[in-house]
Amino acid sequence: MASPISISVHKTPHSKIKGIDFSSLVFGKVVSDHMFVADYKDGKWGDFRIEPYGPMEIYPANATLHYGQAIFEGMKAYKNVKGEVLVFRAEANARRLNESAKRMCMPQIPEEIFLEGLKKLLDLDRDWVPQEKGSSLYIRPFMFAMDNYIGVKPSETYRFMIFTCPVGAYYSKPVSVKVETTYTRAVEGGTGEAKAAGNYAASLYPALLAQKEGYEQLLWTDGKSHTQIEESGTMNVMFKINGKVITAPTTTGTILKGVTRDSVIQLAKDWGQAIEERFLTVAALQEALEKGTLEEAFGVGTAATIAFIEKIQIQGKDYLLPPYSSHSFSKKVLAALDGIKYGEISDPHSWIIKI
Ligand code: COI
Question: What pTM was computed for the model?
Answer without folding.
Answer: 0.96
